[in-house]
Amino acid sequence: CMLALLIILLCFGDRSTAFENDSNPAIVIFGFEKTRSLRLTLESLTRLDELPDFHVYASQDGPNEEVTNIIKSFEDQGVTHIIAPRNGTNETEGHVHVCRHYKHTLDKLFLELNHSHVIILEDDMIFAPDFLSYFRTLAHLLDIDPSIWCISSWNDNGRSMLVSDPKRLFRNSFFPGLGWMLKRDLWLELHPIWPHGHWDHWMRLDSVRKDRDCISPEISRNYNIGLEGTNMEIQTWGRHFRSIKLNKEAVDFGDLSYLLKQNYDPLMQNLLKDATVLNVSGNFAEILRKDRNLTFLIPYTEDQYHVLAEEFRIWKLPRSHYHFLQIFSFKENRIILADQNRCPFLPENLRIFQDEKVRAIVGDLNQDCHETCASHSSTCHSKSFPFLNRISNISSVFECQRYDVGIASH
């Protein structure tokens, strides 16, 4: 134990050079045809003081003369131009092109050019003044904690009314995308099984994530200016992106050892233990508007979450959570949302455990749950679905060789 503590202290003792000495970090901007926002992204990035410490690439998906000219106008500021082939037809869906573009360029950066780390950006972002120092400071976490697989500069719950502390960082089980860094060894793992579409949703599958987390900031270090795109509609941008707060001040993050899993999990358990519990079906909204400087815990079930999402104007499905534990500020209080089925940090009296009598039964094509269970002299127990709805469970009964992600209307 003393040896482990000594190693951690040595790792955190000097953060002046957070990348290892033999590191070869890079930044890549992925772009297609959003010329105006691409120029704004490049202008914002090239204003950052620490940019000379990184190799910078702008990767263009297919030929477009205007995009090419914009990128080349930044070559004298250290930006290298990459053109990826745009295969497929006009009927090929946009998210498929995006997947192919990522695969082509990340293979080039990691496998051909041997970069150690790559910060992945898109052509519709602007950046906080400490954007690059943020990644530099946190990079070593990828080396010392194998349960951390990426560093992100984005908080999906980072709206101005929900954040307050520019120094606060958290473990994030929901892959955030939108400005993130990975190491070469992770790409070596992912590139042979890279999906055909919806790469970001694929990264969130438990079979891919393998219980690993990203580190995210409470206050985002980049801001999304892309009102529309392959996976963006203007209504979604207005509801979830417009009011994201962009950090404006330089901060010293201090000792980051609290983010290591062996330290972070006990912190979460103690935080919940000391919080005041509110009931979703009670008058929680009224209480939150009355009290100040308190920590409130709101346990919920899956069918109750929409009430909380509407009250706090967050996503309709949990994001920026650590094992379905979300923490944010609201009306000068700290709010904790915890899924009673899936959050392991809740006190036992607040958790809902899977009924030992429940078993998974495979139904026939077009057969609904009630019919399936009845054919086995059983009753459908819908409250157990959250426990079963994981790739690891599904793959035990269905012999799928590869998992791709589609977005269904429901």
Secondary structure layout:
Layout: H1 2-13, E1 26-31, H2 35-46, E2 55-61, H3 65-72, E3 79-84, H4 94-112, E4 117-122, E5 125-127, H5 131-138, H6 141-144, E6 148-152, E7 169-172, E8 180-183, H7 184-190, H8 199-203, H9 206-209, E9 213-217, E10 222-224, H10 234-240, H11 261-273, E11 276-277, H12 284-290, E12 295-300, H13 305-312, E13 325-330, E14 333-339, H14 369-374, H15 385-388, H16 391-394
Helix pairs in contact: 2-3
Q: Would you tell me the structural class of the helices and strands?
A: alpha/beta
What is the terminal-to-terminal distance?
49 Å
What's the gyration radius in Å? 22 Å
DSSP helix fraction? 25-40%
Main sheet attributes: strand count, strand direction, barrel closure: 8 strands, mixed
The tally of helices reads: 16
Low-confidence stretches are 1-17, 406-410
What's the overall average pLDDT, rounded?
88
Please write the string of helix (H) and strand (E) elements.
HEHEHEHEEHHEEEHHHEEHHEHEHEEHHH
Widest beta sheet: strand line-up:
3-2-1-4-8-6-9-7
* Dominant shape: globular
Write up this protein.
The structure is a single chain. With 410 residues, the chain is α/β, with parallel strands linked by helices. The chain contains 16 helices and 14 strands. β11, α12 and β12 (295-300) form a beta-alpha-beta unit. It is globular and about 70 Å long. The termini are far apart.
